[in-house]
What does this fold into?
Amino acid sequence: MELEKIYIFDTTLRDGAQTQGVNFTLDEKIRIAESLNKLGVDYIEGGWPGANPTDTNFFNRKNNFLNSNLVAFGMTKRTGRSADNDPGLSSILNSNTKSVCIVGKTWDFHVDIALGISKEENLENISETTKHFIKNKREFMFDAEHFFDGYKNNKEYALQCIKTAYDEGANWIVLCDTNGGTLPFEVEKIVSDVTKIIPGNKIGIHTHNDTENAVANTLSAINAGARQIQGTLNGLGERCGNANLVSIIPTLLLKDFFKKKYKLNMNEKNLNYLTECSRLLDEILNRKPNNHAAYVGSSAFSHKGGLHVSAVEKNPKTYEHIDPKLVGNRRNIVVSDQSGKSNILSRLESLKIKIDKNDPRVSKLLDQVKDREFIGYSYDGADASFELLTRRLLNQVPDYLKIQKYEVRVHKNVNDTDINSEAKVHLNIDGKDIICEGTGNGPVHAIDSAIRKNISKIGKYGDYLKDLKLLDYKVRILNTGTNATTRVLIESSDSSGEIWYTIGVSPNIIEASFRALLDSIDYKLFKEKAPANA
Ligand SMILES: [Zn+2]
It folds into this structure.
């Protein structure tokens, strides 16, 4: 039997970005998009070109994603203007994406109250907008806002709206449960009703999680015929979130019910990247990953208690619904290191570090990573620190700055508004003691400037560090054990454009920052092949 194709549409950068407290920078948007491309989703909705400088710049850059199509988002043309003269539609066309997703009203209540126009005017906006993009050769998706509520309130009109877009050539009609209150059996019934006038392979589904049913609603819609799935990484989204692609994707690829009927562009190899992709988003959002997240949570395959563990030891199927390796996760028991080891090996492979899988140093590295993760390190978002840890173990990283000690002083006069920080760093380079001093608006800034504002003093390393830039600095307080621990993540770059991430953990925020900073400097010196400290 020929398998039917299901398309995955990610809206983390548009709908996910609507979340309270979420404000992606351009760099963060690029990182997320690259990660989605690596995961292999079919569509990445990049945002709303023309709406704000970040989104506009995101679309202006050269985006070459091998696996994914970038989609620009916008809304149907304004009433009383032609599509050709609508500035919103022009920004979307000018963004030059192959695909566009345009939201329009399908609930008569919203047409009356929110837009204050007649039902006929709304239909005309839909048909003119559709024609406009089809004429300009875009893959056109009509995002039918509030479709399910509209259908319940005025079925005839809701269907008329989407039929209008479809008749004018829309490639996809995306049915949205914008308020998130629809239940799975209602979704199944309504979507199958829609398939009577629009074929299922032209129907998309976009659900929200207000009744904790966004994933279930998506699966029900597929069952009823929908073939495009919209959602976000980790279910990020306003209120209670969107449908969580991180749960939906493995369900479609691994569960027999779906696996036997449908195929995705992604394969099992892409799926191995799922856990890393999910954690990367948390790292960018500076959020603690949800340990109990389906498939990718660190507890999703944890086994505690004698009976479970011994059964899992005999056969993991006794307490696991899938093999955790398939989604890049690992079993969390002391019984076997195999899954952890294979994760380490695949990371070494991606760093192009050649090592025999039975080399005892692989187990030693795994132990070090585990020990460090236990005290709060997380290498998922800190590749450069992971590479340094590995290469140090393999004796490939020489000593560079040999920092002997550092001192930091923070002072403020009660009547002043400014707080001043001063740092003194004692280094030893080629046998010579060097003291570097710096000031800054905070202790970390002061240590950083003590080292980097004195590059003439630090002799042979100065030249290598001239173009080092710190782009971002994130602090998270972890409450893992009885004591609070601080984790600092630093994002650095240089004139080559490479971006790298380093991490430091300590009960003391200054020490955590110092370690992350030193790793960033060491990584830069290592990649520049700087000579060892004699
Ligand atoms: Zn939405």
Summary: The chain has 20 helices and 16 strands. The chain has a mean pLDDT of 91.
